[in-house]
Structures are given as C-alpha cells and as structure tokens.
Amino acid sequence: MTGHHLEPGEDAARGDDAWWRSAVVYQVYPRSFADSDGDGIGDLAGLTGRLDHLAKLGVDVLWLSPVYPSPQDDNGYDISDYRNIDPVFGDLAAFDRLLAAVHERGMRLIMDLVVNHTSDEHPWFQESRDPDSPKRDWYWWRPPRGGREPNNWGSFFSGSAWAHDAASDAYYLHLFSPKQPDLNWENPDLRQAVYAMMRWWLDRGVDGFRMDVVNFISKDPALPDGALHGDGPFGDGSPYFVCGPRIHDYLQEMHREVTARYPGRLLTVGEMPGVTVEQARLFTDPRRAELDMVFQFEHVGLDHGQGKFDPRPLRLTDLKTSLGRWQTGLADVGWNSLYWNNHDQPRVVSRFGDDGPRHRTRSATMLATVLHLHRGTPYVYQGEELGMANAPLRTIEDFRDIESLNHYTQALNAGQEPEDILRGLRAMGRDNARTPMQWDASAQAGFTTGTPWIPVNPDHTEINAAAEYADPASVYHHYRRLIALRHSEPAVVHGDFTMLLPDDERIYAFTRRYGDTTLLVAGNFTGDIVAVDLPDGWEGAELLLDNGPSATDEPGRLTLAPWEARVHRRTR
Ligand code: TEU
What is the pLDDT of residues 379-415, one digit of tens each? Predict the structure, then answer.
C-alpha cells in the first residue's frame, strides 16, 4: 500500500508493490481435480475438500477453469449462462462455500472469463438467430458469399471458421468450434453486458479473472480473406483478429467499467496467443490501465513443426532466446506470467524433461526451479507439483478433446496415415493435461469412487500426492520450497534478470540481482554430467536451493549432475 495521492485512472496496487508480484497461482481444471459425488467428473465440493493441498503448497491464488453452465463441447469453454454454475460442478451455494474456504485460508480466487465467444446454446445466441433481434449484432453474422462462407478463415478446431444457419440463410463466425460462436465486441450493449457480468462475480467476492483468448475480441470488421499457407483450403485470418484494431480501447474501457472499481484487490491476466513482447508491454504497462499480465505462447510453440501436431525437439538456445527476450522486454514496464503447463499443453516433464523412472523427479524439479526463478508470476497447473507425466494415449478412442478428435478426422481425410497422426496427438494433445489428479495409489487415484470421464494415468501407483507428502525429496516438496523462497527472498520477486551462457545447448543459467543480493540459477537440461565455467566471484557461494545430490565442482567450474538445478546466493 502506498500513501501518495492517486491520479485519476492510476492504481498504485498495479505498480511495483502490487500484491500479485510476489504471488504464485495454481490452476484447477475442475473436471479433473476431485469428484465428490461419484459421477466421474470433478466438482466444486471435491475441490473445496482438497483446498489444504493448495494451502500447504503455499500458493496465493487459485485460478478456476470454467464452471459455468455449458454443453461441454469444449469442456466448459462454451458457456451458456455466465451467471450460474453447471449442475455437474454444483451450484452457486457450493461456489460460495468454495470461495469462503479459499479466503479463510488466506488465498484468492480468480475465475476464467470466456467472452470471445459463448455457447451456441446461450440465450444471447439463440435470440441472435432471428435477424430482427437486437441481439443479431452481438455476433458475427454475414450473408453467404457466392453461395459459400463469407471468407476463407479456418477454425482452430479444424474446418471452416463459419457455420451456416438455415433459419436465415446466413453464416456466423466461430474461431473455435461451431458450438462457440464469436461475440461482436463492436456492439456497445454487448460490452456493457459483459462488464455487468464481471462486476456481478466481483461483488460476489471473486478476486479477478483469467481472460480466455482476450486478444481475439477485436476483429477487423471487414473480415478480409487470409493468406493461404501450405496446401490446406483455409486462409490465415489471424492478422485480422489477433490484437485487432480496437483491442486496447476495449481493455481500457473494461478497466474503467470494472477493474478500477475494486482498486488493489484484483488480478487480471489475459490469455493471448500470438502476442508479441512489444504488444505485451502496452497491455501490462500500469500507466495504461489495461491488464496486470498476459500469458504469451512463444516458448510453448518452439517445439512445433509445420503445426502443433508435428512436434520437433526443443533447442535449449531457442528457449533461452525467447524467454530471455520476454524478461528483457518487460523489465522496465509491465510484468510477465511464467508457465510450463496448463490444460492445453502436454506435461512439461514429458515434453522438456525426462519422465522415465530414473530422471523424472530430478528433471521435473529442475524445470520448476528454472521457471520459478525468472522474474514474473509463476503459474502451477494441477499435478505439475507432483511431476505428473503425459497420458498413455494409444488409439483414437483414448482421446476426449475436440481439438484432437477433429484434427484426427481432418488429417485422415487428407490422406495421412493413422499412426502418423496419432504420434503427433500423443505428444501434443491436450488430453495429456486432463487426466485426473493423482491423489493416492488406489484404483482411481482418489479422484473418484465412480468411473472417471477420462482414464486415470496408470502411473498413479507411483506418482501421487500421498506418496509425495511423505517424501521430503519429492517434486511436491520442491515446489513448496520454491514457493516459500519467492515469499521470503525479495530478489526472486524484484531482482533484475541477466541470461548467462546464451549459446550453451545444455545448461540454462542466469542471475537475478536486487540491492546487495545476487542469485545464480543453473539447470542442466540433459541426462549427462555437465561442467561450465563459473562466472567470477561465485566460488564457494551459499547454496540456497538444490534438487538432490550434486556433482562435485572442479575449481572455477560449475559441475551439474544429470538434470540438476541449483540456486546460489551472494551478498555484497
Ligand atoms: O485456448 C486458446 C488457444 O489458442 C489454444 O491454446 C487452444 O487451446 C488450442 O490448443 C489451439 O491449438 C483457450 C482455452 O485455454 C482453451 O482450452 C479453449 O479451447 C480455447 O481458448 C477456446 O475457448
């Protein structure tokens, strides 16, 4: 809290001393977290019963993926009522109990705000199907062009981004599934309806929002054809909706109409595929009053080939170049969010580490250490703190996710071999992140007494919370120590960032400096022993944190065991 007088639009808590700068966020994907009623789907009562897991881990904020009424075409990212809870998860009373229990433990709760699109079963969309309805303009309805789609854009979930509605012989835009029609933010009444809904949740006590693809909400109203890349039939519409013409106006208006009314209390984070560092500076500059931070996608695209389902190995130098540029780009204004995982990404220990029995714990804790020692707000995705690995997805019947199922059909139709398609889906499919949370070694991992909506990973007999609580060397206790370090060591929160060894393909190393304190962070991204030259002045420095037995340093060298990570501290 600062004492100085605030200029209009200025909110001191959005600046250097904002509470969320020292916070760690934990994402819950409620379908897969804890099931209290045996229907095989996680729910709010199940989550409420497991809150001590989060409290003991030390996290400050819970981000709850969507729990609103939904046909569940995209697991809740298709919302049919913004002011209620889907019966599969509970009801508003259960939500209020969850929120109270979160606050009792000194934590905060942010909701997922999905307002680029609604469900096609939302009353707004149902009304908009009538061309004479005032709601017609709340969506992107367009007449056919030459008897076909209004433009050539493709959807993120395969096929055209347009669906035909016979009732009025018109098309509506859907960047995701046809059951997720895009809202038209050009319409001021729609915008006010969204702001009113946001205030309704904030007045109920929630502490902010994670905003789904919020940098897609402003489209070029001309909706021009996109350029054709490769041999597919669809054009790339992204130049006309990624950080579109009015995006900053909308976010500043949202701040005036919503966020500014709750000064100092909220966290707002915009999910922004395709956002650049330069744009992120604008979105997160406190003086512009838009958002507190953004989720960017650059580092989770580095192992994509022709598309996300054509993966290639990560080059460590690419990761350093990318994350290093974000650290530098947001050093003086704005703020980073830090993540390896969420409900859309494969498990990081399988992706950038080694999930085999020998190195799983070591590589999961190395990855955690490197990420959490960056400057920014770390996000932990459920199960990441246990070192949960990718799912053993074999045949297409093992997949549940609309993105994977649609991609499979489309690639088959394009003549690809099933086994080739499955290889990409196994590595990159979103279902990897969505298998149930592994609480214990029992039949359904303590997730449900019924049949889970997606199978529990058989490795839960080894990898589970109960076992990890009991083992001080577990991934869980390492995350707990990392979170505690962020809360106790100001250099982790405020320190500047300097990348070391930018050309080294094996060791990720950097320093953080704040006042008299400097931290040296090093992680070995390989299964070999690796020695590098130690920068001057670090000989014999205090070891603040490690992730297991160390290799012995040669004089003047830093020698790291396979997947070892270390944090040293020096005070001057
Ligand atoms: O995701 C947005 C997004 O662009 C991608 O990460 C997406 O998940 C997909 O993998 C593209 O290949 C958000 C949500 O996080 C995601 O779960 C939703 O499916 C999507 O928006 C639509 O609401």
Answer: 999 999 999 999 999 999 999 999 999 999 999 999 9
Q: How many domains does the chain have?
A: 3
Q: Supply the residue whose CA is at minimum distance from atom 12 of ligand 1.
A: 156
* Confidence (pTM): 0.97
Residue 180, domain member (yes or no)? no
Taking CA atoms only, the protein residue closest to ligand 1 atom 16 is 344
Same domain, 381 and 520: no
Q: How confident is the model at residue 15 (pLDDT cuts 50, 70, 90)?
A: low
Residues 373 and 447 reside in one and the same domain: yes
Separation CA 195–CA 181 (nearest Å): 19
11, 212, 290, 468: the active-site residue: 212
Q: Identify the CATH number of the domain in which residue 86 sits.
A: 3.20.20.80
**Does residue 403 belong to any structural domain of this protein?**
no
92: left (phi over 0), alpha (psi -120 to 50) or beta: alpha
Which residues neighbour 364 within 8 Å (Cβ) at sequence distance 6 or greater? 348, 349, 353, 384, 387, 475, 478
Is 320 found in the same domain as 194? yes
Encode pLDDT of 150-202 as tens digits. Answer: 999 999 999 999 999 999 999 999 999 999 999 999 999 999 999 999 999 99
CATH number at residue 552: 2.60.40.1180
Residue 74 bears catalytic tag: no
Instruction: Check if 402 has its Cβ closer than 6 Å to any atom of ligand 1.
Output: no
Amino acid, single-letter form, for residue 368:
A
Ligand 1 closest atom vs CA 273: 4
Q: Is 212 a catalytic residue?
A: yes
Distance from Cα 141 to the centre of ligand 1, integer Å:
23
Q: Which amino acid is at 522?
A: A
CA dihedral 337, 338, 340, 344 (to 10 degrees): -10
Same domain? For 110 and 134 the reply is no
Point out the catalytic residue in the list 11, 86, 112, 271.
271
Greatest CA span in the chain, whole angstroms?
79
Domain boundary among 105, 138, 173: 173
In order of 142, 155, 163, 224, 307, the CA distances from 228 in angstroms are: 22, 14, 20, 12, 14
Structural domain of 141: 123-173
Residues 147 and 32 in one domain: no
